[in-house]
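Interim report, section 4.2 (structural modelling).
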Amino acid sequence: MQPINEMKITFSSKSSNEAFARVVSAAFVSQLDPTLEELADVKTSVSEAVTNAVIHGYENGPGYITMTCKLFPDSVEITVEDQGKGIEDVELARQPLYTSKPEMERSGMGFTVMETFMDKVEVFSEPGKGTTVKLYKTFKSIRDKDKEE
Amino acid sequence: MQVKFTRKGATLIVKIIGELDHHSADYLRQKVDGELIKPSTRNVIFDFSSVSFMDSSGIGVIMGRLKTIQKLNGKIAIVNTRPQIKRIFEMSGLLKIVPACESIESAIGMM
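Predicted structure of the assembly:
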């Protein structure tokens, strides 16, 4: 299915852009008129994905992160992409409480939060090339409203 | 983000104002650790009433402070978390070791 609207932005890998990215994604998604809770789910998941790119992808060094949002009548598809270090073992990285950086007081809950707040999370990664995280969510409030009408 | 401190006996009350993510977590960590080295502190209450957003970075901050406070034989509590934030703490298992209280008064009562 073709998206009804689409946006793509590229920004520097800086921790201050974590807030920028989640606010932009929420502003774009709000066109669909989801509930505030659904919007908070998207914001939190984008924050986790971008934080992973900043900390793990580029290890707090320079680089660019690209975020793409595709809107469908009652759902969203968000891609967060970096060309950083990549993940050796994606399955391990997705385990709750697993972190490669315990010294930084990271909780290892980033992927678990994304999986809880979104319907589906896909991770594509190649060591030395980068990581792409795809987040999918159907807004039940919109889907149910459409059914009633 | 802004952080405000008040004290009630040996208990430090940390009011966090704004968004708590990886970017602001460093600042919060530094501010709180600066207070924790003062000998009068034994317990810490984190007041989340003015936190408008939090991601999993918040878990690390609380876990890290818990380690310090446990060495002092003190306690930690979190208060006034909105549902979205409480869910994040719940999924990490943190609420099994750190109580989430309804009010600062009830948290002080547990210290």
